[in-house]
Amino acid sequence: MSTARKVAENLRIVQERIARACDRAGRDPHSVTLVAVTKSARLEWIRTLVDLGVVELGESRPQQLVSRAVELPPLVHWHQIGSLQRNKVRMLLPCVTLIHSIDSLRLLEAIDRIAGDLAVHPRILLEVNLTREPAKHGFTASELRAAWKQVFSCDRVRAEGLMTMAAYSTNPENARPIFAALRALRDELTRITPGHELRHLSMGMSGDFETAVEEGATLVRVGSALWAGVEE
Ligand SMILES: *Cc1c(COP(=O)(O)O)cnc(C)c1O
User: Which of 141, 161, 183, 224 has the largest count of CB atoms under 10 Å?
Assistant: First the structure.
């Protein structure tokens, strides 16, 4: 099968699985956005996906996001999903639509300051580590509660929601309590700062996106399921 046909088939299957999960959960399919994770994909495959109408693309490394933003049409919206160092912020901000991976107040404050220099209003999500794996990035739930008022003292940064990653598992049901906990934390934080709507829950990857949709994900970050079996 040609590269283009395989990418199209993979996309159709992922979109159908999202639609069916919405159906099970009684959700409007338009309330879930597929962010196609392109970190391991070739430029040619990504172009195929963009031609098929997928314009929300996610990268883990800011350097790769910025270099690909130049290569692909300006209608693409880029999502920074991997950890971000402060010294990459100035380079990233002009190219990025949504940063999913804010994992400290220091990073948030650096973004706010640089956004002032660049006269932009970056949209961000706070990354939460709910699995308590020490190697993982993100605020613990209690750290985020403690930091919450400061998140909204930023002048320029707009916090629009939360992001998490479940622990790797072959059984997506193992991720369900983590996704439900992110939604509950979102609801709790919304009560602390009424008037600031937290629209987004970024959760779910190739192995567990249907469970995430059932638990309220608005953004699913799917990579390998889109590229499986795609050859040169
Ligand atoms: C790579 C990555 C994904 C996509 O993972 P797949 O299992 O390939 O779908 C999602 N989120 C983050 C933060 C990632 O780094």
Answer: 161
H-only helix segments in the chain: 3-25, 43-51, 62-71, 89-92, 105-118, 141-151, 176-192, 209-214, 224-227
Atom 7 of ligand 1: nearest residue by CA position: 206
C-alpha–C-alpha distance, residues 100 and 122, integer Å? 11
DSSP 204: -
pLDDT digit string (tens) for 47-99?
Answer: 999 999 999 999 999 999 999 999 999 999 999 999 999 999 999 999 999 99
The pLDDT tens digits of the residues spanning 163-209 come to 999 998 999 999 999 999 999 999 999 998 888 889 999 999 999 99
3 lines ligand 1 (CB under 6 A): no
CB of 61 shorter than 6 A to ligand 1: no
- Over the stretch 116-161, which tens digit does the pLDDT of each residue have? 999 999 999 999 999 978 778 999 999 999 999 999 899 999 999 9
Phi, psi angle pair for 156, to nearest 5°: -110, -35
Whether 39 is in the pocket of ligand 1, judged by its Cβ within 6 Å, is yes
Identify which of 97, 127, 81 has the alpha carbon closest to the alpha carbon of residue 223.
Answer: 81
